[in-house]
Design brief:
The protein is mainly alpha-helical. It is built from twelve helices and two strands; from the N terminus they run H-H-H-H-H-H-H-H-H-H-H-E-E-H. The chain binds heme C (2 copies). One heme C binds at residues 56, 59-60, 62-64, 68-69, 72, 84-85, 87-88, 92-94, 96, 104. Residues 56, 59-60, 62-64, 68-69, 72, 84-85, 87-88, 92-94, 96, 104 line the site of one heme C.
């Protein structure tokens, strides 16, 4: 791979050398060549961690290249970029819903404009997006089927200890732990011992991560009822 990249770069360098030679009529010295900075590749959208980037990758190449974005004047703010996306949808028929317009607007304002990834108006959009994605992932999962299919209720009562601790006790213990969701979904998949008593819980490794998370949500919510 690195060899391939080197070859590509050499090809570029040769092209520059030949172009220069053609223009000046002489082969350039090495110091001249080093001065040349290749322009940024504007045919691709600038990568970003923001969710709007992935959506833009899917939806913005349908009608035109990313050049249209790159050639916009710099320094546009989030509102201006969002308005631009509204126009893309209303006037040109880009297939975007209101949420996607907001997310792409935020991404473009950070990647090409005056916004920062840490701006509250950007961060809050990403958070809402992640919450929705997590909820959608848990939507198809039927917690009751999982509880029955994995013998959870053979070892745990909702309110009663059996082999393992009652779910309400578990919820109570993790009540003030900000990482409860993550910790408990890991222990559901990995099993464990020593946290509650002498009995061990077998690993439930056939559970998918999202299923373990849904079960953790269920267990941690039992205290509130
Ligand atoms: C359904 C087709 C379509 C899609 C999808 C689309 N655009 Fe456009 N876009 C256009 C048209 C048409 C123009 C105007 C072209 C012109 O003026 O020559 C345009 C122009 C632009 C411009 C230049 C500014 C302007 O207002 O003319 C930007 C920036 C832009 N698009 C960004 C995007 C981004 C980002 C996306 C992804 C969300 C996107 N476009 C998706 C059709 C589309
Ligand atoms: C064979 C009995 C058994 C089965 C089946 C079982 N558990 Fe457990 N579980 C236990 C025991 C015993 C503990 C206490 C382990 C310890 O002390 O660390 C426990 C602990 C837990 C905890 C607390 C973990 C922690 O980090 O504090 C949760 C949550 C839990 N189980 C959920 C489940 C769910 C959900 C299922 C079904 C997918 C399940 N258990 C199936 C026996 C079982």
């Amino acid at each position: 791979m690195s060899q391939l990249l080197e070859r590509v770069d050499m090809k570029r360098v040769m092209t520059i050398l030949l172009t220069l030679a053609a223009f000046t009529g002489v082969a350039p010295s090495w110091s001249q060549v080093k001065e040349i900075e290749l322009p940024e590749d504007v045919s691709e959208l600038r990568p970003s961690e923001l969710p709007g980037y992935d959506i833009a990758l899917k939806k913005c190449g349908i009608c035109h290249s990313a050049n249209y974005v790159s050639y916009q004047p710099p320094g546009k703010d989030q509102q201006q970029w969002t308005a631009e996306m509204t126009k893309m949808q209303h006037s040109y028929g880009a297939p975007l819903n209101e949420n996607e317009i907001q997310l792409i607007g935020a991404y473009l304002a950070v990647a090409y404009g005056s916004a920062n990834a840490t701006d509250e108006s950007v961060v809050s959009l990403s958070r809402a997006y992640e919450r929705e994605a997590a909820a959608a992932g848990q939507d198809d999962i039927d917690v009751e089927t999982l509880l029955n299919g994995n013998a959870c209720l053979g070892c745990h009562g909702i309110e009663k200890d059996i082999v393992g601790p009652a779910f309400v006790k578990i919820a109570e213990r993790y009540k003030n732990d900000a990482d409860a969701q993550a910790k408990v979904s890991v222990s559901i998949r990995n099993g464990g011992s020593g946290k509650w008593g002498a009995m061990a819980m077998p690993a439930m490794s056939s559970l998918k991560e999202a299923e373990a998370e849904a079960l953790a949500t269920f267990v941690l919510n039992t205290a509130k009822k």
